[in-house]
């Protein structure tokens, strides 16, 4: 059946159900009479409501049978269920026999999420956790870099839970389980639970300008998503659930000032309680509605705007210009981010955790390997960075790691091509030093400075082919460092 014909058929069902509602023999389901609510339909999913008595069910069946005869659409008895509560057992048996449907139990899934008369529990959300775990398991066999994993976490894994999080407040334990899955996948590449983490998850959730990776904080995002429903309630939008909430619980009260109705469904209570979050965002004498309207763009509520305002504020880091740079390869940028936070597993850091390892630097074999020594304190890494800078046409006295980071932070804030190329080169040099260190330490490799310099130069030239404004500068760099 075409979508247009289906809409016509559902319109006929709507009219038949409206006629059913005015018959004396039919009794409404509790708290449905004021709104005349008899059914909800979305695509081919149909929910019908009625009081649990023989007369109401009989009339409902007669109405639906007329619709079936006229449209040719019939209920699939194997996929249909009847949900009964609060009536005697003998009446329940009669209703089941009359409809021919099997008795279902709450909760059940509707449009992909559980419908439950009580607060959402952990068991009902395990399907969400399972879906995320299965997706991670598919990726675990692939040799993904840190940057590849973080991209998958930010896009795919977050997208899976977004649908649920926009409907109701997820249990804290479920959000914690999802966070553990994402954290474990990032740092280990597997689904096996692990506490290994080079940097705390909360740090990853900070904006890039404050030193994080801008990973969404699911707890805050979930609360921000509820504000969309709060605005709809405050604006009294023309939808069934909002009319129902206003008729039976809000009753012309000011949502911003009213007490949370204890008799309301837990979802309604959580939405009303979200007004407390809005109060923290309000400035001056702004009302609840006017504050929520600041989060609207072109008529649509922007959850991201609410999220940004609800997220804790942190001071910006000195090296934000490097971290926000768009010309650095993602793999190099992630490694540089770890290096800036000094979370690389150098010998001095391993010793703090009681891990034994050969002490000497693999490059010079004279000094102990420490982060400050590895990055430009060692004569060989110092010379590598010096050679690359001279190739770029920059002559300067190379200092400590912190000196170079401060200099690069100032340089990266400039918008000329030389600054862009130097920033991209710096990130690759930091990455190559660590890669060569691991190759020597674990695979008995040999360090060849000439080969590393050639690799860096070739990468910059290949990257520059996609950037028109780099072309002129690259013409003068037609030799290897």
Task: Please provide a written account of the structure.
This protein is mostly helical and 481 residues long. It folds into 4 domains: 103 residues, no CATH class; 95 residues, no CATH class; 90 residues, no CATH class; 156 residues, no CATH class. It is built from 22 helices and 8 strands. The strands form 4 sheets. The protein has a two-stranded antiparallel ribbon with strand order 1-2. It has a two-stranded parallel sheet with strand order 3-4. A two-stranded antiparallel ribbon has the order 5-6. Strand 1 and strand 2 form a beta hairpin. Helix 4 runs antiparallel to helix 5, helix 5 runs antiparallel to helix 6 and helix 20 crosses helix 21. The radius of gyration is 31 Å and the shape is elongated. The N and C termini lie far apart (69 Å). The mean pLDDT is 91.
Averaged pLDDT, please?
91
Sheet-strand content, in percent, reads: under 5%
Helix fraction bin? 40-55%
The beta-strand count equals 8
The succession of helices and strands, N to C, reads: HEEHEHEEEHHHHHHHHHEEHHHHHHHHHH
The DSSP helix count reads: 22
Low-confidence stretches at least 5 residues in length (pLDDT < 50)?
none
Q: What's the alpha carbon Rg, rounded to whole Å?
A: 31 Å
Instruction: Give the overall shape, derived from the CA principal axes.
Output: elongated
Strand arrangement, major sheet: 1-2
Return the structural class.
mainly alpha
Major sheet summary line: 2 strands, antiparallel
- How far is the first residue's CA from the last residue's CA? 69 Å
Q: How many domain units? A: 4
């Amino acid at each position: 059946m075409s979508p247009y014909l289906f809409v016509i058929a559902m319109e006929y069902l709507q009219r038949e159900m409206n006629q059913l509602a005015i018959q004396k023999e039919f009794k409404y389901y509790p708290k449905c009479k004021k709104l005349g609510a008899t059914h909800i339909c979305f695509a081919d999913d149909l929910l019908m409501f009625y009081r649990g008595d023989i007369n109401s069910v009989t009339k409902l069946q007669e109405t639906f049978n007329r619709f079936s005869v006229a449209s040719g659409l019939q209920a699939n008895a194997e996929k249909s269920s009847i949900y009964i509560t609060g009536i005697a057992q003998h009446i329940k048996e009669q209703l089941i026999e009359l409809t021919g449907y099997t008795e279902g139990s709450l909760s059940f899934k509707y449009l992909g999420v559980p419908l439950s008369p009580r607060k959402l529990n952990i068991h009902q959300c395990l399907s969400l956790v399972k879906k995320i775990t299965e997706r991670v398991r598919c990726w675990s066999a692939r040799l993904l870099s840190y940057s590849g994993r973080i991209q998958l976490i930010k896009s795919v894994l977050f997208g899976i839970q977004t649908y649920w999080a926009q409907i109701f407040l997820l249990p804290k334990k479920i959000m914690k389980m999802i966070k553990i899955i994402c954290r474990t996948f990032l740092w280990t590449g597997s689904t096996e639970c692990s506490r290994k983490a080079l940097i705390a998850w909360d740090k990853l959730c900070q904006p890039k300008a404050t030193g994080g990776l801008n990973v969404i904080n699911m707890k805050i995002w979930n609360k921000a998503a509820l504000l969309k429903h709060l605005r709809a309630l405050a604006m009294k939008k023309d939808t069934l659930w909002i009319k129902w909430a206003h008729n039976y619980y809000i009753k012309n009260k000011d949502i911003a000032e009213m007490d949370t109705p204890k008799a309301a469904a837990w979802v309604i209570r959580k939405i009303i309680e979200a007004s407390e979050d809005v109060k923290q965002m309000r400035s001056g004498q702004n009302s609840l509605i006017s504050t929520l309207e600041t989060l609207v763009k072109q008529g649509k509520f922007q959850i991201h705007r609410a999220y940004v305002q609800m997220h804790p504020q942190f001071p910006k880091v000195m090296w934000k210009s490097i971290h926000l740079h768009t010309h650095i390869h993602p793999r190099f940028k992630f490694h540089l981010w770890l290096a800036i936070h000094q979370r690389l597993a150098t010998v001095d850091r391993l010793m703090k955790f009681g891990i034994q390892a050969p002490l000497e630097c693999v490059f010079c074999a004279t000094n102990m390997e420490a982060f400050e020594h590895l990055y430009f304190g060692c004569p060989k890494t110092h010379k590598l960075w010096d050679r690359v800078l001279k190739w770029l046409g920059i002559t300067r006295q190379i200092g400590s790691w912190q000196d170079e980071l401060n200099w690069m932070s100032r340089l990266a804030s400039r918008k000329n091509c030389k600054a862009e190329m130097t920033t991209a080169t710096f990130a690759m040099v930091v990455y190559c030093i660590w890669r060569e260190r691991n190759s020597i330490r674990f695979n008995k490799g040999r360090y060849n400075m000439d080969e590393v310099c050639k690799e860096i130069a070739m990468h910059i030239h290949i990257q520059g082919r996609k950037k028109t404004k780099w072309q002129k500068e690259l013409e003068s760099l037609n030799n290897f460092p």
